[in-house]
Design brief:
The chain is an alpha/beta fold. It has two domains: 151 residues, Alpha-Beta Complex (Quinone Oxidoreductase, Chain A, domain 1), CATH 3.90.180; 151 residues, Rossmann fold. Helices cover 25% and strands 26% of the residues. Strands 3, 4, 5, 6, 7, 14 and 15 form a seven-stranded mixed sheet that branches. Helix 2 packs across helix 3 and helix 2 packs across helix 9. The protein starts with a strand and ends with a strand. It comes from Allokutzneria albata. This is Enoyl reductase (ER) domain-containing protein.
Amino acid sequence: MTTSREVRLAAVPAGLPAPEHFSVDEVPLPVPGPGEVLVRNRFFQVFPALRTLFGGGVEGTPFPPLKPGDTLIGAAIGEVVEGPLPAKTLVSHWLGWREYAAVPVEQCVVLDDTLPHPVAHLSQGLTAYAALTRGAGIRPGDTVFVSGGAGGVGSLAAQYAKRLGAGRVIGSTGSAWKADRMRSELGYDAVVVRDGGQLAEAAPDGIDLVLDNVGGDQLSAAIAEANDGARFALVGALSSQLSPDHPGTTAFTEVDLLQLIAKRITLRGVSPSDSQDVQAEWEERFGAWLRSGEVTFPHTRIEGMENAPRALHQLLNGQHVGAVIVEL
């Protein structure tokens, strides 16, 4: 093997990206330098925050902006081909969207069998777990609201919340078919479709904890139904990232400050760095829940590098439940 394929940004989209904004290019096989390993990727994650990187990124986040000609990035699982680590060692890293990658050893995480399948390491469950346990401090009996409840984070958040003692879990989504799956498969007791207008009916006793993936009107609706002392963990801004009329690099939401004050509501942003200290705990619990069948990992696998741009297009247009994984 002397070449590799990778997905590059061909043009910055004016709205939501489509397959024509990307190219699948054949390039020379990467040559690992000192302290690097050559990894053959087997799976990589497709995630909606790529939209923000196309728009120029957000200062203070760990992801760099992407310009035309740049190869896309994302979490990946692969096998070591050569370098300081033994051949065929399974590792996770952040140079997805390519068949082969030269990755610094310190940026690789060697995988063990804590999780029953390597692809489970590409779930966004760590974010959901950190937000529930550290960001918002879930308590027994809490009524929990998860906006964007069918996505990569939300599809696991409800299942986790039930295992962690929540009394009632409510989610939101944009389509009725997703709502049906959320109730039947993902542990949601009630689902609000689209604009959040039914939230008061779904939470007659108010809301104690919010895991917000969306922002916008759904965040405002959650504040209106929040109980005294409610805790909000803010993990995403899909209302702007998935809007064709917005670059996805800012996410302004109008909220009623008087309600925040009167109800003593806590809003806390949860970033990827908040997950590092809890990763081992999450892996142990997630692995046990998967093996016992108490939790499932909802995801769609799409085969082939040539189909990766289409996978991103489908994800941003809400065509999947759970995570979207490209399998090579």
